[in-house]
Design brief:
- With 130 residues, the protein is α+β, with helices and mostly antiparallel strands.
- It has one domain: 2-Layer Sandwich (Double Stranded RNA Binding Domain).
- It is built from three helices and five strands, in the order ββααβββα.
- α1 runs parallel beside α3.
- The chain is globular and about 45 Å long.
- This is Ribosome-associated translation inhibitor RaiA.
Length: 130
């Protein structure tokens, strides 16, 4: 017997209420902008952080306008007290994926460091392709 599970539009893992809480927020933008998905793990809904991440990633479209999709994962680790905020940004461009990960004391610092690293990666890729 084969079980088939439908693919949910909103990803919400609830194995145990205290173990993992993941909230995914996707906002539709114009046709020329990339689709940006923001995932907050082990945290509540923070609209300010979400908007900050979206604006930071949209600034990368000035450097390389062919970005298709972007996934921003923001995580909070309870075991490390100094650098307990993690950010991971994955960019998808035609025929290539770029990934940047950073840990720090605040989400904004982690997002900025990831965007800087992705900017350098996109610049190298752009010079290599042209």
């Amino acid at each position: 017997m084969v079980r088939r599970f439908p693919a949910p539009a909103l990803f919400l893992h609830s194995f145990h209420p205290y173990i993992l809480r993941e909230v995914v927020m996707t906002k539709e933008t114009g046709s020329d902008m990339p689709t940006i998905k923001v995932t907050l793990r082990h945290s509540n809904n923070h609209n300010a952080i979400e908007e900050y991440a979206r604006s930071a990633v949209q600034s990368l479209t000035k450097l390389y306008p062919a970005i298709l999709t972007c996934h921003v994962i923001l995580d909070h680790q309870k075991n490390d007290f100094e650098k307990n905020k993690n950010a991971e940004i994955t960019l998808h461009v035609p025929q290539h994926d770029f990934i940047a990960k950073e840990s720090g004391t605040a989400y904004e610092l982690c997002i900025d460091a990831c965007v800087d690293a992705l900017g350098r990666q996109l610049q190298k890729y752009k010079e290599k392709m042209h």
